[in-house]
Amino acid sequence: MDAIVYFAKGFMYLFEVGGNTFVSWVTGIIPKVLLLLVFMNSIIAFIGQDKVDRFAKFASKNVILAYGVLPFLSAFMLGNPMALSMGKFLPERMKPSYYASASYHCHTNSGIFPHINVGEIFIYLGIANGITTLGLDPTALGLRYLLVGLVMNFFAGWVTDFTTKIVMRQQGIQLSNQLKAN
Fold first, then answer.
1. 88-113 tens-digit pLDDT
2. CA 142, CA 131: separation in Å to the nearest integer?
3. Mean pLDDT score of the chain, rounded to an integer?
4. DSSP string spanning 98-146?
5. Confidence bin at 7 (pLDDT 50/70/90)
6. What is the DSSP-derived secondary structure letter of residue 28?
7. What is residue 172's three-state secondary structure?
8. Terminal CA-CA length for the chain
9. Cα radius of gyration rounded to whole Å, the chain
10. How distant is the alpha carbon of residue 138 from its chain centre?
11. Contacts (Cβ under 8 Å, ≥6 apart) of 21
């Protein structure tokens, strides 16, 4: 009988922990993401949807802009996870590649710009603690993460672009003339 009571308590505890996690999301990340969405959409409305679309179309003509500059600026200005939403302005065929690059920017840039991915800063701080223990300046580590990230995140987007084209060809997915021009 004690085993059944113990199991029932453990089972209910599972839901208690789940409820506490849910409440922390409702009071923590959900309002933040909601306000970032409102902020981003307000900026887009202020700038003008047509100008944002034109910039994305301009960026989509150059892989360095599409997978290097746009994801970095989005991560810096919007943080994680809102940086990923800027891909909505790119042509469909470029969205997987943009996501690959932008999601990596939300990680590699947090050593210098911790506001990008606050939830993951503990990883950087753990590594930086080892650097500090050795008597070295952790700023150099953050800069190295940033510089290597700028290059590697671009290549992540570019390689994903190639693989997306291969998969599209294998699956028989045709691009409209408008998307081919981008």
1. 888 888 999 999 999 998 888 877 87
2. 11
3. 83
4. HHHHHHHHHHHTTTT-GGG-GGGHHHHHHHHHHHHHTT--HHHHHHHHH
5. confident
6. T
7. coil
8. 68
9. 21
10. 24
11. none
* Amino acid at position 161, single letter: D
Give yes or no for a contact between 150 and 112, defined as CB atoms under 8 angstroms apart.
no
For residue 112, what pLDDT is reported?
80
- Between CA 161 and CA 174 the distance in angstroms is 15
Q: Can you give the pTM of this predicted structure?
A: 0.67
CB atoms within 10 A of CB 42: 10
- State the DSSP H helix or E strand holding residue 154, giving kind and residue range, or none if neither: helix 138-171
Answer yes or no: are the C-beta atoms of 97 and 67 closer than 8 Å.
yes
Q: pLDDT band for position 181 (50/70/90)?
A: very low
Joined together, the tokens standing for residue 62 give: 């150059």
Assess whether pLDDT exceeds 80 at residue 130. yes
- The encoded tokens of residue 75 equal 């991560």
